[in-house]
Amino acid sequence: MRFPMRNDLIVLILATVASYPIGLAIGHPWVLPILNALPAYVVLVHRLRKGERGGTVRAMLWWAATVAIVGTVAFVWWPEPLGRVVLNGPAYKSEMFNWIRTGRGVEGSIRLFLPEHLVHLGAFLVVGIGTGSAGAIVMGAVLMNFMSYYVAALAKAGVPSWGVTLLGWQPWAIARVAAFATLGVLLAEPLVSLVFPSAKQRLKSSTRAAYIVAAMSGILADWFLKFLLAPTWGRWLRALLP
Q1: Is the pTM of this model over 0.90?
Q2: Are 41 and 137 a contacting pair, CB within 8 Å?
Q3: Exposed/middle/buried for 73, CB within 10 Å: 0-12, 13-18, 19+?
Q4: Rounded distance, CA 74 to CA 69, Å?
Q5: CA 138, 140, 143: angle at the middle one, nearest 5?
Q6: Where do runs of H (alpha helix) occur along the chain?
Q7: Sign of CA dihedral 182, 186, 187, 191
Q8: What does the pLDDT look like over 42-92, one tens digit per residue?
Q9: Is the CB of residue 63 less than 8 Å from the CB of residue 75?
Q10: Would the N or C end of the chain have less CB density within 10 A of its end CB?
């Protein structure tokens, strides 16, 4: 019998799931994203060493989906307040709820959100290149956790479960996460190839351009969808938020 996922992918998903109860129980703000990122980075290096650029990207997308789903569920059902545990969680939740209720704020204005996104992208690129993507994956876990904290806050505030499911994780945020997951793999390649010279020979440079285009397309989709859909998205959520 063949399993649909390779063993390292199964371990990645299970370890990521386990990182939430462990990290939340420890309660230090930086422990959770580091525990989230650790299995992802191990799999990333393992697959890149074998020359599997596409397989590494797919693994990181599975990891990102696991972080989004498990993080949101964990933040909804954890029995203790998590404001001090989730980095930037309360601030982001407050910003988003203010935008939903008033229609004003960063989320609905390209003049305000585009500079912020460019800063995040620049930081991700610098940290990714400098750390072989180890720091970038931790940064990605921080960003996804405070977005999950906001989505969980919608559920706790009384938004119906179907509304949280359909409107909590916006399509532009999903595009951004997919783009950053792909970028994280590409940014790791120079250092992995330096430490493991055989990886450089195995990685096919001819496919690199396609993944660069895919990552940049995801980033542009994030900006375009946010500009196009955010005002309507906010009105839908305003109608559901008690």
Answers
A1: yes
A2: yes
A3: middle
A4: 9
A5: 115
A6: 7-26, 31-49, 53-77, 89-102, 110-131, 134-156, 161-167, 171-195, 197-202, 208-240
A7: positive
A8: 999 999 999 999 999 999 999 999 999 999 999 999 999 999 999 999 999
A9: no
A10: N
Low pLDDT (below 50) residues in the chain: 1-4
Q: Which tokens go with 78?
A: 């954890």
The number of C-alpha atoms within 13 Å of 135 and in the hemisphere containing its C-beta is: 11
The DSSP call for residue 84 is T
* C-alpha to C-alpha distances, 191 to 121, 164, 178, 184, 219, nearest whole angstrom: 19, 40, 22, 12, 24
Handedness of CA 207, 218, 56, 138 (dihedral sign): positive
User: CA 96 to CA 234: how far, in whole Å?
Assistant: 9
CA distance 149 to 86: 7
b/e burial code for range 17-36 (CB count within 10 A of at least 16 → b): bebbeebbeeeebebbbbbb
Instruction: Residue 113: name the closest of 221, 223, 24, 214 by CA.
Output: 223
Q: Alpha-carbon Rg of the chain, whole angstroms? A: 18
Q: Which residue has the tokens 């209720």?
A: 101
Joined together, the tokens standing for residue 75 give 């933040």
Angle at 28 between CA 23 and CA 32, to 5 degrees: 35
